[in-house]
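Notes to self after the Tuesday call (sharing in case useful).
The group wants a holo model before anyone commits to mutagenesis around the pocket. I volunteered. Ligand is zinc ion. Logging inputs and output together so the record is complete.
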Amino acid sequence: MALPPDRIDRFARHIVLPEIGGAGQVTLAVAHVALVGLGGIGSPALQYLAGAGVGRFTLIDDGRVELSNLQRQTIYSERDVGHGKAVSARRWLANFDGEIAVELVDRRLTRDNAGDAIAGADLVLDGTDNFATRLAVSDACVASGVPLLLAAVGRFQGQVGAFAGHLPEEACYRCFVGDAFDADDCDTCAEDGMLGAMSGWTGTFAAMHAIRVLLSGKAAFGDPQWGRLHLLDGLKAEMRSFHIAKDPACRACGSTVPG
Ligand SMILES: [Zn+2]
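Result:
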């Protein structure tokens, strides 16, 4: 596959990078990313992934845009208030780049529908703010063999990590958090407060990490770092990371069945 001249022009600053190059750009052009949660993380992630030339998105969110979202959810403007986030995000994408293919899912993901919603994706980026959805999405990723990029932010700490629990040696998100949170669907953002730039930092770092995953095996920048959780500390302005091991007894990806 060769990119047409206008696309080569659009992505010229990527293509000249030896770590991405023409092969990397073509890989992004045919990539399909499912974005779960179009909020403070999903908004900047979508902007940078669309800007990077990812060719197809599934946009998943059941919420509506509220005035208090505009402080950090950068794809929305005042005219979107009261409208669905998934529909508004599609409108942003259509204005930004008319060649990107889009599918919408404006339902909340659960154990029963998550598999259908992410079907066909090369990567799922989950930026939702509740554990029940994250675990349902993670389990669906393991079952479908789709990598998961998890991005979360609370106050001044962000977390970003890529998981490939479908692989025999790699952890899934459930290996990390366990089974205690399946019923925990409270949204904490409204109570905790959030500096917009903090969720933006986490979201753009997630976009960069998503590109690493998508380019794995295709370009030198590709390096998914499975199971490595990056912690972003907004108060100290520091980052650190640690590795999550696969739990052999994990309900979603483990090799030993409990009981
Ligand atoms: Zn697991």
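Two things stood out.
The pocket of zinc ion is lined by residues 165, 171-172, 174-175, 247, 250, 252-254 (CB under 6 Å).
The longest strand covers residues 148-154.
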